[in-house]
Amino acid sequence: MRNSLKAYLYILPALLLSLVFVYSPFIWSVVSSFFNVRLDGSFASPAGLRNYVNLLTDSIYWESLANTFRFIILFVPSNIILIMSAVLLTEKENRHNRVFETVFMLPMAMGMSSAALIFKYMFRPSVGIVNRLIGIDVQWTNDAGAAMLSVVFLGIFLDFGLDYLLLLSGLRNLDRSVQDAARLDGAGEWQVLTRIKLPLLSPTLFFTLFISLKDALLISAPVMVMTEGGPFRSTQTIVYYYYIEAFRNGNHSSAAAISVTVFILAALITACSSLVDRRRIHYEN
Amino acid sequence: MRKVLAIMLLAVAPFLLFAGGSSEQNVKTITWWHSNSGILGEAADALVEEFNSTTGAENGIRVEAIYQGSANDTLTKVRAVWQAGDTSQLPDLVQLDSTGVVDMSTNPDIYYVEDLAAAQGDDLSFILDHALESMRYKGKVIGLPFNASTLLFYYNKTAFDEAGLEAPETLDDLIAAAPLLTQRDGNGNITRYAIASVPTTYELCSFIGMQNGLSYITDMSNGHDGTPTRTVFREEGTLAAFLTKWRELYQTGGLNNLTSGVSAEFAAGRTVSMLASTSNLTSVLEAIDGRFELGVASVPKVDENATGGVNLSGGALFTFHKTEETESAVWTFMKFLTSARSQLEWHIATGYLPVNRDTYNMEEYIAHCQANPLFQVASDQLLASNPKVVGLWIPSAYQVYYSFQSNIRSMLENGGDIEETVARMADEIDGYLDEFHIQNGD
């Protein structure tokens, strides 16, 4: 009894914090989504399912959702492939690679807003350095497709450092003996990579994949700084739309309904990933 | 244990002493939340310092200026305090832009500046009519205009001179000039546009407001007589009249539907004219850096009958019901910020148009305008405008902004019908307004 009391006391601070900052706002959002809510946040009248019905018929909602999925599809695979390539290229521990490691991890040291602002200026169509250096004339801020790509580049830049660090340390900590044995048996480097390294690395790989999937679903702050959802809402993601509804338009009930749908999406992704985790991921020992 | 307590007490003791010693007996401190950064921030700090060392010191008032991020961030913070119901946390004075009025008008603690002035045995007659009208809500001035600006037509005078053109007075002039200003490379790609813009709320307040001497986007005089209930530009034909000209302009090939980075394109010489706020004048001059001569002119008229001019926008100072002592101190500081002298200093430092009517007659102001004729054009345009042409105060302002922007661009690029486009915008915006009234239970 005494022991379990002690255990409860230990988790109390964390529990209180999550109750105050996570669970209670969440429950408040769920409740709000079933009411008409005034500008000052007070409830005017019950709305039943009206806020949800409005959402389902709101073209901007669907557009924002589509933008989010477009971002996920562009961001998640290219992010993993690029980072994995960097990791494989710098796998060996030596003097040269130490330089590259620093370069690749450096983005971690940069604040999100600063990076987003710098990207914003780099991608200016006529005066930005990107068009100038590559010698192209892409209307990054005015063309819907190009604007989304520029946000994807920013997303990769922001995620690069941490994911690189995780995957690199994961790869370097793999048991060498298996790889050496395979090489002795005549396996080529490609076989070693696809048959041994990647499967052994799968827990870390899966973890970074899941985190970047979650980041992509919830992306909003970089969008807010870099494109403000524009041009013509083409980079307005679902969470940014939520922000606009709640904090710009003062439309609390619609914002609450959006947040509930985002929660359901995130919950679905989590459920799927834990399913994959149990069935497909190999853990050593 | 006792030792620890003793050490703690010792550590805290100096602070206790300080707390006792620093209780300033006769100085009233008031807080001012603002959103001025960069050049604006320096100018605002200079005004506050000047106040604290002169008028403030004489009257025992000390102002603490707190930068709270962008105008929108500042509003978000005020809103958060308001929703938490803790009015003691509200600042004594806050600077917000026009999007803040919708919130402020429903804030139970707001103290209309016209009432505050009256309670202090004063009035607002020293403020320019245009500025007063820009902040009038339901017949009473709600906030004290402080940083005033209007829309202005910026043009590359060097390019206009080369083409033998004057600044356009009407959209027809601009349509006629556009082919002469537009340049193409060998492959027919446009390398220089006549103008870059996708008109939305700010531009339309002027382009619609100027028509027939005075017009509005919505009922309730653009929200100045209460929350709007519906749009009026469809019935009054004002938006269609503007779009007819604007589409002609697009058909010349000289209009670039650009929504961001317009100033940079202008400074780089890729577009030879643009519509922007007068408050950008200083930074645009800096960006051009002498590469070409800058010219500014009044916003082109939609047609000959469009004589209303432009609306005044920018920011204003809002205050809340507090103790009598605080209210009096706030009024003293507000008077200082909008005095003829402070508005002159503020104008010279930032380019914002003076809101004090006496500033316009000051010798220093006239001399400054002679030395910087571009500022003269900006203030002439304002003074020639109908004060009743006002900005739009509307809930869901962000959605309204995008409704205009997306529909206008889509109409131009996909060849849509003007009447249908106008109807779609009216329906969308009316929908947002209906939704607001349902949510707010009125």
What would you note in describing this structure?
The complex is a heterodimer of chains A (285) and B (442). By secondary structure, chain A is mainly alpha-helical. Chain A is 74% helix and 2% strand. Chain A has one domain (57-280): MetI-like fold (Orthogonal Bundle). Chain A has helices spanning 2-32, 50-56, 59-89, 95-105, 112-122, 129-134, 144-172, 176-184, 189-217, 221-226, 238-248, 252-280, and strands at 35-37, 43-46. Chain B has 442 residues and is of the alpha+beta class. Chain B has 2 domains: 25-149 and 313-361, 3-Layer(aba) Sandwich (D-Maltodextrin-Binding Protein, domain 2), CATH 3.40.190.10; 151-310 and 387-439, D-Maltodextrin-Binding Protein, domain 2 (3-Layer(aba) Sandwich). Helices cover 50% and strands 14% of the residues of chain B. Chain B has 21 helices and 15 strands. In chain B, the strands form 5 sheets. In chain B, strands 1, 2, 3, 4, 7 and 15 form a 6-stranded mixed beta sheet that branches. Chain B has a 3-stranded antiparallel beta sheet with strand order 13-8-14. A two-stranded antiparallel ribbon of chain B has the order 5-6. Mean pLDDT of chain B is 91; it is low at 14-23. Classes of the chains: A mainly alpha (285), B alpha+beta (442). Chains A and B meet through α11 and α12 of A and α4, α5, α14, α20 and α21 of B.
Short description:
Chain A is mainly alpha-helical.
Give the tags.
heterodimer, A: 285 residues, mainly alpha, MetI-like fold, two-stranded antiparallel sheet, 12 helices, 2% strand, globular, B: 442 residues, alpha+beta, D-Maltodextrin-Binding Protein, domain 2, 21 helices
The portion of residues forming beta strands of chain A comes to under 5%
Contiguous helical run count of chain A: 12
| Individual helix count of chain B | 21
Which CATH class of the largest domain in chain B applies here? Alpha Beta
> What number of structural domains do the residues of chain B give?
2
- Annotated CATH topology of the largest domain in chain B: D-Maltodextrin-Binding Protein, domain 2
Q: Give the proportion of residues in helices of chain B.
A: 40-55%
Gross morphology of chain B is globular
State the strand order across the main sheet of chain A: 1-2
Overall 3D shape of chain A: globular
Q: What is the straight-line distance between the termini of chain A?
A: 35 Å
Low-pLDDT runs of 5+ residues of chain B are: 14-23
Q: Give the name of the CATH superfamily of chain A.
A: MetI-like
In percent terms, what proportion of residues of chain B is strand? 5-15%
Q: Count of DSSP E strands of chain A?
A: 2
